[in-house]
Write a structure and sequence with these properties.
72% of the residues lie in helices and 7% in strands. The chain is built from 16 helices and eight strands. It has a six-stranded mixed sheet, with helices on both faces. The chain has a two-stranded antiparallel ribbon with strand order 4-5. α6 packs antiparallel against α11 (306-374).
């Protein structure tokens, strides 16, 4: 056995090393492939998610541009109302209410889109939108106060203030437009041109509406245009011309982009619309009475700006198509990448499974079987699987080695069992199952040989007891009855003292001994008292069924551990003398060593 233990590790070590290297290589290949596939998939998913965010931001952009348009459009009915006499006609009121309703719906749609997008900037944009809505409500309230006045009491300053308040609403929406615009371009830079043209168209609609609002003060009060109003008109026309050339330059570089819609803008607004504006300006410059009312001006001028909205919507639709195409393309790429990754992973896994099944697993099982034999695990067989003949012979050799080990283990177990039985027979009383005298003496010597703990004093107490008048029991109930009584006494003593004692023994005949190691000798005395009372009340039963009771006399001696070199002899001598003292005192009592004088007679305890 010793030779096998020494040689086995040197044989199994190379196998373990090869197995570890094979497993490490397989794991490295799998990890490398998974890292590459995961990285590619992560980038593809990032592009796809970016495109989806761009699509969501585009919806916010569309909603913001529509909100700008509705505010600009609302200025037309508002300007018309401020030029009409109070009370307003039902047609004017209905047009103003419908325009305000459309604006409110556009603001609500923009608010919903900002909440749905849940982007980092959306909370700020939503807060700004709330402030813009508050400013719009205040501007509307101011207009309502003006139109309730008679037209003769409406001063140019009132009208200019009302117009400027409404004009100030649209610039407050520009930050939302810019944020959404950047998010769209970041997700799809191919949408840059169409997004910019849609934004320029929205700004063109705002400037066109602002140009019309420049006439409200003069038309509403039936007076000629002031120099300041003439300058404001010139400034608005200059901005409109700049926007026109910017749009035309974009379309020159991209001739396929909505040229038909832009030609309609050129004809309907830049030709007809601006011509009408110039005509009204000429008439308003000479005489304020030869001009249309604000309502008439709005009814004719506002429809001429519809082509601008059509062109803006065409650019937005083109942007939406581009974003949808990109999302679909990236989604397809993501799916293809995932499918290729899964297929490649499956193929790699299949190859690794086959390699493990036909190369690594047989080698691993053989290594484990040899290692188990070396470690003493001799159960089962080396393998239950079917392998080629060459590998099978190797496993058969391992099974032969395992069987040989089992035989050696069985022989060793039998030898150990025989040794255990002999040891038990040598140390145990055959009748009671308690320690015999030799084993008990060995316990005492072992206890005295260990060094005591200085922090906690240790006392060794010896309780020696002898059954009173045991010869009468044998004479009256026979030796079988006496043996039954001894067994009963041993069971009672074991139950009463074994948990707190260091050993319970039958020293011979009817004489028993209990060894205690306690911090206080009174603990052993209390245990002896309890056992004496238990024994006196116990009912013994003879072989023929008769019952009787017995008592015992006790001698208790104690000594600090390590104080006497021959602790056993000293304790037995004192306990034996105390036992005889108890018998001389009338039996059925306990004689306890004196605490003050070890040589003095013991104290007799009967309760």
């Amino acid at each position: 056995m010793q030779r096998t233990d020494n040689t086995q590790p040197s044989r199994s070590l190379p196998r373990a090393q090869i197995r570890s290297r094979l497993q490490a290589g397989v794991v490295a290949i799998c990890m490398l492939f998974l890292v590459l596939a995961s990285t590619l998939l992560w980038y593809q998913n990032g592009d796809y998610q970016g495109a989806r965010r761009a699509a969501s931001a585009f919806e916010t952009l569309r909603a913001a541009l529509i909100a700008m348009e509705k505010v600009s459009f609302e200025r037309g009915p508002a300007n018309a109302a401020m030029g009409e006499e109070s009370p307003l006609s039902a047609q004017v009121v209905q047009a103003l209410q419908q325009a305000r309703h459309n604006t409110d719906e556009a603001f609500a749609r923009l608010s919903e889109q900002l909440a749905a997008e849940r982007c980092p900037r959306c909370a700020t944009d939503a807060a700004e939108l709330g402030e813009t809505k508050t400013a719009l409500l205040q501007a509307r309230a101011n207009i309502d106060r003006i139109v309730q006045r008679p037209r003769s009491q409406r001063t140019p300053q009132m009208l200019d203030d009302a117009i400027n308040r409404m004009v100030a609403i649209v610039p407050q929406l520009i930050p939302i437009v810019n944020d959404s615009n950047l998010s769209v371009i970041k997700g799809d830079n191919n949408a840059l041109d169409t997004v910019q043209m849609a934004f320029l168209a929205a700004m063109l609609r705002e400037q066109a509406g602002l140009l019309g609002s420049r006439f409200t003060g003069a038309l509403g009060t039936r007076r000629a245009l002031s120099d300041a109003e003439q300058l404001a008109i010139e400034r608005s026309q200059g901005r409109i011309e700049q926007l026109y050339w910017l749009l035309e330059s974009y379309l020159t570089d991209h001739p396929r982009m909505a040229m038909q819609a832009f030609r309609q803008v050129q004809q309907q607004y830049f030709t007809d619309g601006l011509a009408y504006v110039n005509e009204v300006r000429r008439r308003a410059s000479a005489d304020g009475n030869d001009t249309p009312t604000t309502r008439e001006f709005a009814q004719r001028y506002v429809p001429m700006m519809s082509a601008i909205i059509g062109f803006r919507d065409a650019m937005l639709d083109s942007t939406a198509d581009e974003l949808r195409r990109r999302c679909a393309d990236l989604q397809l790429r993501l799916l293809l990448t995932a499918m290729i990754g899964l297929a490649s992973t499956g193929l790699l896994v299949l190859m690794l499974v086959l390699f493990r099944r036909y190369v690594i697993r047989p080698f691993n099982e053989a290594t484990q079987a040899a290692t188990a034999i070396a470690q003493g695990d001799l159960g089962g067989r080396a393998t239950e699987r079917r392998y080629p003949a060459e590998i099978r012979k190797f496993f058969e050799a391992i099974d032969i080695l395992r069987e040989s080990g089992r035989t050696r283990v069985r022989l060793e177990q039998e030898r150990q069992r025989l040794i255990s039985d002999l040891t038990t027979m040598a140390e145990t009383d055959s009748l009671t199952g308690l320690l015999n005298r030799r084993a008990f003496e060995g316990r005492v010597r072992k206890l005295n040989s260990t060094a005591p703990d200085p922090a906690q004093p240790s006392w060794v107490s010896m309780v020696l007891f002898d059954i009173d008048y045991f010869k009468r029991v044998n004479d009256t109930y026979g030796h079988d009855g006496g043996d039954l009584a001894l067994v009963k006494v041993a069971d009672l003593c074991r139950d009463a003292c074994q948990q707190s004692s260091a050993g319970v023994a039958r020293l011979g005949g009817e004489e028993f001994a209990v060894l205690f190691e306690t911090s206080d000798p009174t603990q052993a005395i209390d245990a002896a008292r309890r056992f004496r009372a238990t024994l006196a009340s116990a009912v013994m039963r003879a072989a023929d069924g008769r019952t009787f009771t017995i008592t015992a006399s006790f001698g208790i001696a104690f000594m600090k551990r390590g104080k006497h070199p021959n602790l056993l002899a000293a304790l037995l001598r004192r306990a034996d003398a105390l036992l005889y003292q108890a018998k001389g005192a009338g039996r059925d009592c306990i004689a306890v060593q004196s605490f003050d004088d070890e040589q003095a007679l013991g104290e007799i305890l009967r309760d």
